[in-house]
Amino acid sequence: MPRQLPKMTIRKTDVRVPIIQGGMGIGLSSYTLAGAVAREGGMGVLSSAALDRIVSKRHGKRHNFREAAAQDVRDAKILGKGGAIGMNCMVAVLNSYEDSVLGSMDGGVDAIISGAGLPMALPEIVNNHERKDEVALVPIASSGRALDLICRRWSRSNRLPDAVVVEGPLAGGHIAWRTLEEANDPANKLENLLAEVFEVAKKWGNFPVIAAGGVYTHEDICRYLDMGCAGVQMGTRFLATYESGANEAYKKTLVECQESDIELASKPGSPCGMLFRVLKQSPFYQQALKRERAPKCDKGYLLNKGNCPSKYENEKTFCICNGLLSSIDLNNPEEKDLYTVGSSAYRIDRIMSVHELMRELQGLPAEKETSRPIEIRPQSDLGLHQST
Ligand SMILES: Cc1cc2nc3c(=O)[nH]c(=O)nc-3n(C[C@H](O)[C@H](O)[C@H](O)COP(=O)(O)O)c2cc1C
Q1: Are residues 113 and 101 in contact, defined by beta-carbon separation less than 8 angstroms?
Q2: Model-level pTM?
Q3: What tens digit of pLDDT does each residue of 284-325 get?
Q4: What does the domain layout of the chain look like in residue ranges?
Q5: pLDDT tens digits, residue range 203-249?
Q6: How far is the CA of 22 from the centre of ligand 1 (A)?
Q7: 50 to each of 86, 89, 251, 275, 338, how far by Cα in Å?
Q8: Closest atom, ligand 1, to C-alpha of 140
Q9: Could you tell me which CATH class the domain 16-246+350-366 is placed in?
Q10: How far apart are CA 44 and CA 21, in angstroms?
Q11: Which residues does a 6 A CB cutoff place in the pocket of ligand 1?
């Protein structure tokens, strides 16, 4: 039986529906997606990856990383009608990490959600910002041990997580494990990771725990709430909405894919060193498997000041920046698309609106399509170009 979901409070922000739409880079969790989720009562989360490029194009004016993060938050806030907006800042996107955090805070973000590495320095970065007490800091962790390390370090800056997202091995994008054996080890199932994390969270002050990776239905959400979670974070289902930034070919492939099409790329894999879940028919991945794309990274967003291994070799890694930018139609047309998904992507059978999805996830009856209040317009036609 469907039941009413409780609200979730993270620091000073009340989230009426305890669902966080996970950050999805590059540009997949666009301001249109995050804004629509916020408007429906969840927390919409932007991705800071390559925002300089994305926001500069959208507004027709050059934005640096900090300005771009601030503008993306403002744009999402307009669409979100005051609902909760977070920014996902990946530690591995090293060059722009600090500017993205600070810019998001300038723009009025409610939460910084940070993973793809341990966000050890986050409290030190926010400490001199005037909004430091307003903004929730939420690490993504995949073990009790990782969370404990984060809490220990953050406590030196008199800060603790305002919530933690626990991401299990079924999630989309990068996952925390480096080998297939580790990813498939039953000890690393989300339920087991949650049990460890609850203990650590209790030790450090009992902040909210949010489950992520493979959450698909209203019943799944209820199950994690019953285990003691304050809410869930979901990616793949939001990717398959009209409002997400994925291009048409990405969405079509998502609807058509089978379970056997979903792979954890490793060799070649992401230059970040973590396993990266992809649809094997992604044209970019196919090219990478055959080593047909010469080593090249001309974008430089990842790792050590752009010194990414995919610049020099194509045996072990491929340039995820180029593949992902192509998948939002923001790259030179010679580069092909790379589709990252969660392990439940094969269950997607159609693209729907965020409004419809949020109703389904709350266990509410479907509305007639004609009564859908959210107007879907192309991202270029949302009237935000002039607002800088
Ligand atoms: C297409 C896609 C891109 C993602 N990109 C990011 C990202 O840039 N940073 C991040 O921390 N997590 C990323 N994730 C993980 C999501 O935020 C979320 O935690 C995860 O997808 C939850 O699992 P689910 O897809 O099974 O719902 C991504 C997930 C997907 C599906």
Answers
A1: no
A2: 0.95
A3: 999 999 999 999 888 878 766 667 889 889 999 999 999 999
A4: 16-246+350-366, 248-326
A5: 999 899 999 999 999 999 999 999 999 999 999 999 999 999 999 99
A6: 6
A7: 16, 11, 21, 21, 16
A8: 11
A9: alpha beta
A10: 5
A11: 22-25, 28, 47, 49, 88, 90, 115-116, 140, 167, 170-173, 212-215, 233-236, 239, 340-342, 344
